[in-house]
Amino acid sequence: MYSLYFTAALAILPTIILAAPHNISCPATPSPLPKEASFDVVSTLPDPFLYLDGKTRVKTKEEWFACRQPEIMHFLEEYQYGYYPDHSLETVTATRSGKTVNVVVAVGSTKATIAATVNLPTGASASSPVPVVISIGGMDNAAYLAKGIAVVTFDYSAVASDSNSKTGSFWTVYKGRDVGTLLAWAWGFHRVLDGLIIAAPEIDSKRVGVTGCSRLGKAALAAGLFDQRITVTMPMSSGVQGLGPYRYHALSGQDETLENSKSGAPWWSDSTLGTFVNNSERLPYDAHTIAAAIAPRALIIDQGRSDPYTNSKGTAIVVYPAVKLVYDFVGLNGTTLGAGQPKSQIGMALRDGGHCDNSGYSNVLPFVQEVFFGTATTRNYDDLTPWTAMTTAYPWSTSIPS
Ligand SMILES: *[C@@H]1O[C@H](CO)[C@@H](O)[C@H](O)[C@H]1NC(C)=O
Ligand SMILES: *[C@@H]1O[C@H](CO)[C@@H](O)[C@H](O)[C@H]1NC(C)=O
Ligand SMILES: *[C@@H]1O[C@H](CO)[C@@H](O)[C@H](O)[C@H]1NC(C)=O
Q1: What is the pTM of this model?
Q2: Which DSSP state fits 68?
Q3: In degrees rounded to 5, what are phi and psi of residue 387?
Q4: Binning pLDDT at 50, 70 and 90, where does residue 2 land?
Q5: Distance 333 CA to ligand 3 centre (A)
C-alpha cells in the first residue's frame, strides 16, 4: 500500500508548479532532468536567464533568486559535481590544540577527521576577530597576514585523494557516491569552516574567503558555489571545470577541454559529465552559469596572461564579461559585506606570468581587502588588457531582463 501511494505521489511531481517566496511561481524544472541527447547544440554561451524548460526566461531579480539560481544549483549537481551531501545528517565537532583545529564529522556511527592549520595575524582575538581565507595547496600567506587576514589551510588530499582511489575523509563517510573530487574538496572547506566557528573565536565567520589554484582553483569555485557563508570566492588559474569555458576553449593556452579533463582526471566530476564528452556544446550551461549562481556574493578571478595550461583569454573575454552581466542584473540583493562594499562584487584579476604564480595572490588582495574591510582600491578589476570582451559569445546581452 505504501509503495502504491508513493508511486502515485511521484507521478504527479513533475506537473507541480513550485511555490516560492513572495508568491513567485517558478516554471517546473523537467523531472528527471534531461539527458545529454535531448539538449540542442548551442555554440555560444547559453542564456543564463533561460530556464531548463527551454522556453521561459527570468523576468525579475526576485525570480532569479527564487527560481533560476536554485535550478542552476540543481542541474550543476546532476551534470557536473554530484549531489552535495545532506549536511543536516552530519554532526560536526572540533577541538583546538595550538595552531591545529581538529574537525570531526560524524554521519551515523561513521566518523572522519580533518585537521586544519590556523595562521592568525597579529592582534587577532576573540574580542577582535579577523576575516579568514581558507586555502588549499599553498598561497602567499605572509601578504594576507600582514593585512590582518587569517589564513587557514588543510590537506586536501586527506579529504579526498586526487585520484580514482576514493580515499580520504569524504569517502570515509560517503563511500560509493557518484560525486566528483571537486565537490569532496569543497565539502572539506565547509567542514573546516564549521570547525573554525566552534574552535577559533579569533576568526570572524561572516568574512570568509576560499582559494586554491589550478585543480584546486576549480575546487575553490565549487566551495564558493555550494555554501552561502563564503563571502569571497577566489579561484586561481582554474581552467575547465573552473572558470575556463567549455565552449571557446581554444582561445589561448594548452586548450584544456571537457574531453582532455575527463580523460586526464575523470574523478574530478560525477559520471554524468562524462556523457557530454565530444558534445560539450550540448551542456545547458557553461562556466559563466556556474559563476552566476554565486552572485551576489563576491568573486575575484585570477588568470596569468601567459598561462600555458588554462585558457586565460577565454576566462577573461568570454566568461568574465558574461558573468558580470548577471552580477549587474541581480545587484547586491540587500547584502552588506564586512565593513564596506567593493565597487563591484565581481572582478577579473589578470596579471603577467603563468600558471599558479604566487603573485596572483597579491594581485587579488586589494579586492579581498575591499570586501572584508571596505578599503577602497584604485586597482581596476575590469581591465582585460591586452584583450577585449568577445560580445558575440553572449548574444543574450542585448536582452537582459529589466
Ligand atoms: C500569496 O498567494 C496566496 C495563495 O494564492 C494568497 O492567499 C496570498 O495572499 C498571497 N500573498 C501575497 C503577498 O501576495
Ligand atoms: C570522442 O572523440 C574521440 C576522437 O574522435 C574518440 O577517440 C573518443 O572515443 C570519443 N569519446 C566518446 C566518449 O565518444
Ligand atoms: C536574495 O534576497 C532574497 C530576499 O531577501 C532572499 O530570499 C534570498 O535568499 C537572497 N539570495 C541570495 C543568493 O542572497
Answers
A1: 0.91
A2: I
A3: -105, 175
A4: very low
A5: 6
